[in-house]
Amino acid sequence: MIRQSQQQKLLQKFSPQQIQLMKLLQIPTVQLEERIKEELEENPALEMGSEENTDDFDNDFEDADATAESDSQEEELQPVDVEDFLNKGEDDSSDYSYSSDDYREERRETPVRREDSFHEHLAAQVGLLDATDEQKLIAEQVIGSIDEDGYLRRSPDALADDLAFSRGIEATTEAVQEVIQKIQESFDPPGIAARDLQECLLIQLQRLPDATDIRQMAILTISKYFSEFSKKHFERVQRGIKADDETFREVVQLIRRLNPKPGGNFTGSTRMQQYIVPDFFVYNNNGMLELTLNSRNAPELRLSDGYKEMLTAYDRSDKKNREQRDAVLFIKQKLDAARWFIDAIKQRQQTLLMTMHAILDLQKEFFLTGDEANLKPMILKDVAQITGQDISTVSRVASSKYVQTEFGIYKLKFFFSEGMQTDSGEEVSTREIKSILSDIINEEDKRHPLSDDQLTEKLQEKGYNIARRTVAKYREQLGIGVARLRREV
How many CB atoms lie within 10 A of CB 51? Predict the structure, then answer.
């Protein structure tokens, strides 16, 4: 049965300009450059360059807009720049044109160093392999299945099926396994084409040039006691291989020198290197902190002179028809979008500086000393109250933004942390507690590492009233394992 009903809902809708500003606030400096480039390509009414005085144009802009909407019946076309612009757009091969003679775009080609990728390095070794032509084709298929860490994640059966479908080669599982073994025994770097970490370490040990007793004990450790060794049950491993303390220490040192990811450290890896571009710069000028915004966040944008002239010419024209009116409405739409974008960029700059100034005032001691112990408890609400902004706005500013100081580059989220009171009633940052916890673990006896209960007692002795489960949580956030995994021989 179909029924009609009325519902009253409270919804919050954002204008396109607000949505654009929120997106611009969230992106970092590098992505902002790409976003500006996209806008320049999409909107020919937007240009690079300093903004000139546009007060007179604003009045003409409104008058021309009103005139364009009212005029609709004229048929005779006046020789204005609008038609010339439309014709020029068909012939001009550039994305957009610049009307300022002072702007010069200089194109420079950046030299790029040519390096072989990890898989290209492996493929180059196929020709040196002592094998038949069919085995070399199998080797190429195997190399293509090796991941960037150097591991072979596909089974010989699956590789045999891949060869049948992609290359038309009917290879048995045994033939594929034979080629895999040849790659493991001769290809560089040692340890590639292994199915798991245990096999990877064994391959590297077996390819060591010196057949010493230490190497044999290390092979025995990995082959028979790998689980116990990975969990650091060293007493069981030492009893199993029947080694004294000094010999076992050498065995452990040898295993730790092996590479668990033989392909990961390859200099020609296809992985992209990530570079951090700071959004802010903080300088200590004799005890006075100075904040500047990265110049890439403050590009010089302006409205196109050509578009403004076309709009002005239309406004001054005596005779107007529908075609001219439609063209002017298009121009106005582009100029509106360009103005909104310029205003959004300016508002982004003001919001970034306002937020960073608030963080600078709250964490002044840290920016002067660089000591994490001087970090004060600070949450998004604290910054929002100072700046008068919404918490979501502060969160967008803090997301993916970096500040460069004399002590290094920090992510803005680094300065936000909860607070906790000491026995003396002083409120300290949880980051300070993590720093002290990390120092305690670094100074512990690695042969007898401290348990979470012992770490809790150490912190309580320093005046930090903290529970054991909280210590365990902070330890995990620091990426530090439990006491058993921190143990060394």
Answer: 12
For the chain, the domains span: 118-256, 280-297+346-486
Q: How many residues does the chain have?
A: 489
Can you read off the two tokens belonging to residue 353? 């500086």
pTM reported for the whole predicted model: 0.55
Query: What does the pLDDT look like over 419-453, one tens digit per residue?
Result: 666 666 566 677 778 888 888 988 888 888 888 88
**Are 402 and 412 contacting, i.e. CB atoms less than 8 angstroms apart?**
yes
pLDDT exceeds 50 at position 271: no
The pLDDT, as a whole number, for residue 68 is: 47
97 φ/ψ angles, rounded to the nearest 5 degrees: -110, 155
- Return the number of other C-beta atoms located less than 10 Å from residue 318's C-beta: 7
SS3 track for the chain: CCCCCCCCCCCCCCCHHHHHHHHHHHCCHHHHHHHHHHHHHHCCCEEECCCCCCHHHHHHHHHHHHHHHHCCCCCCCCCCHHHHHHHHHHHCCCCCCCCCCCCCCCCCCCCCCCCCCHHHHHHCCHHHCCCCHHHHHHHHHHHHCECCCCEECCCHHHHHHHHHHHCCCCCCHHHHHHHHHHHHHHCCCCCCCECCHHHHHHHHHHCCCCCCHHHHHHHHHHHHCHHHHHCCCHHHHHHHHCCCHHHHHHHHHHHHCCCCCCCCCCCCCCCCCCCCCCCEEEEEECCEEEEEECHHHCCCEEECHHHHHHHHHHHHCCCCCHHHHHHHHHHHHHHHHHHHHHHHHHHHHHHHHHHHHHHHHHCHHHHHHCCHHHCCCECHHHHHHHHCCCHHHHHHHHCCCEEEECCEEEEHHHHCECEEECCCCCEEEHHHHHHHHHHHHHHCCCCCCCCHHHHHHHHHHCCCCCCHHHHHHHHHHCCCCCCHHHCCC
In this predicted structure, what is the pLDDT of residue 19? 74
pLDDT of residue 198: 93
Question: For the residues 62-75, what does the mean pLDDT come to?
Answer: 47
Contact (Cβ atoms closer than 8 angstroms) between residue 339 and residue 39: no
Mean of all residue pLDDT scores within the chain: 79
pLDDT at 259 over 70: yes
**Tokens 């049965």 identify what position?**
1
